Amino acid sequence: MGISLKRWLLEKLGGGVERVSSADVETGDFLGLAAEIHVRELAFWSCVNIVANAVSKCEFKTFVKHEETRGPEYYLWNVEPNANQNSSAFIHKWISQLYCHNEALIIEQNGQLLVADSFDRKPYALYDDVFTQVQVGDFTFNRTFTQSEVLYFRLSEKNMRLIANGLYASYQKLIDYGMRSYRRSRGQKGVITVDTVAANGWQQEYENIKNRNFKSFFDAENAVMPLFKGFHYDDLGSKTYSNEGTRDIRAMIDDVSDFTAKAFGIPPALLSGEVQGTSDALDQFLTFCIDPLADMLQEEINRKRSGYGGFSQGTYLQIDTRAIKHVDLLSVSTAIDKLISSGAYCINDIRKLTGDQVIDEPWAWQHFMTKNYATVAELLKALEADTG
After folding, report:
1. Are 229 and 267 contained in the same domain?
2. DSSP 162
3. Does 148 fall in a domain?
4. Are residues 54 and 44 in the same domain?
5. Does residue 92 sit in the same domain as residue 219?
6. Among 144, 312, 363, 374, which is 20 to 30 Å from 158 by CA?
C-alpha cells in the first residue's frame, strides 16, 4: 500500500495527484487520505443527486408539426430508454457521467438509448468527431461512431470537479488542523518520574511500559497499571472540551459542501437542507442550474434526432422543467383563477401543470376570459355609446 495505490485513488476520483509524495506512504496517512476523499465525495455526489433528481422529474415533451404527441419518442425518453433501465435510472447515469467527466455520450442501438461508461473522442475542426472504444457495461463496441451518429454532451469548457478538488486540497489543511487539535485536547497526558536508582537501562523498561501497559490502560474504561520500583506516574488529566469544538470542524466540512454547490450552480441552502428561504433558493436553482442544463440537453437532442428539416416543420423535443417545483393547490388557487380567467391557459393546461389528469371533454380545452377584459378599441366604443 504505497504511492501507486494513492495515485490511482486520486486519479479515479478526479485530481489531486500532485499532492502525493514519498512522505505519504504510511498507513496512517493513507487512512487520512481516505477520510479526506469521503468528505469531498459526499459533497460532490450530493450535488449530482440533486441535479439528477431534478432532471428526472422533468417531462420530455415531444412535438410533431407543432402538436404535442405521446408516441414512441415520448415513451423512449420518459418511460423506457432501454431494456435494462427505466427513464429515472437512465437520467441518473447520464447526469452522473456528465458531471464526473464533464462530458457524456449516448448512443442508439436497435431502438435503445445507452449511456456510455467510457469512450475515446478524436475531435476535428471541419469534420465529424470520431468516437472509439465505446463501452457500455461489460461490452465494448468494435466499431467507430461519428458525431452525427451519437448524442454528445459537454458540460462546460472547464471541468468544475477538478477546480473544486483543487480548492479543497488547500482547505483540507484547515480541517486536518481542527481534527488534530480536537484529538490532542481529548488525549490523556502525564509525566513519568524515574529515580536515579532505576536510571541504568531504564529506556528499555520505559518502552515496554509505554507500548504495552499504557496503551491498555488508556484504552480501557476501568484498569489498573503496575509500575516497577523507581518509576512514578503523575496524571496531568485531559482538557475539558466543549461541544463547540466539534461544531467548528462540522462548520469547515459544511464549507466544503458550500463551495462544491457553487461549482454546480446550486444554492448552498438546498444542499444543507435549510428550510428558511427554500422557495427563493429553489427558484435560483431552476434559473441558473436546471434551465440552462435542460436547454443544452434538448439542443443536442433536437439537432441530432430531428435536424433542421424536422425542426422547421415543428418536430422537436422540449424538456419541461415546470414539474420540478411542488405545487400546493390551496396556496396557488388565486393564481390559477387569474391564469384561466385571463385566457392565457385552458383548464387542461392547469391540470397538467399541477400533475392531474386532463379532462377528455372539448370544453376543458377551451380558453375562457372574463368580461372585465376588453381591447382599448372596445372600451372607447363603449365609452362613446354611453356619452352619446
Report:
1. no
2. H
3. no
4. yes
5. no
6. 144
Co-location of 248 and 196 in the same domain: no
Determine the distance from the C-alpha atom of residue 149 to the mean position of all C-alpha atoms in its chain, rounded to a whole number: 29
Radius of gyration over alpha carbons of the chain, in Å? 32
| Shared domain check, 283 and 163 | yes
One pLDDT digit (tens) per residue for the chain, 388 residues? 444 555 555 555 554 444 444 344 444 454 455 556 777 888 889 999 999 999 999 999 999 999 999 999 999 999 999 999 999 999 999 999 999 999 999 999 999 999 999 999 999 999 999 999 999 999 999 999 999 999 999 998 878 777 777 777 766 666 666 666 666 666 666 666 666 555 556 666 666 666 666 666 666 666 666 666 666 677 766 555 544 456 666 667 777 788 888 888 899 888 877 766 678 888 899 999 999 999 999 999 999 999 999 999 999 999 999 888 776 677 778 888 888 888 888 888 888 877 788 888 888 888 888 877 777 777 777 777 777 5
Residues 232 and 289 in one domain: no
Cα gap 235→223, rounded to integer Å: 14
| CA pair distance 388, 381, nearest whole angstrom | 11
- The domain in which residue 228 lies consists of 191-237
Which among 219, 237, 255 is the end of a domain? 237
> How open is the CA angle 172-176-177, to the nearest 5 degrees?
115
Contact call for residues 13 and 166 (beta carbons, < 8 A): no
**pTM recorded for the entire structure:** 0.73
CA distance 103 to 100: 8
Look at residue 107 and tell me if it is in a domain.
Answer: no
Residue 119 lies in a domain: no
User: Would you state the cell numbers that stand for residue 383, as one nine-digit string?
Assistant: 365609452
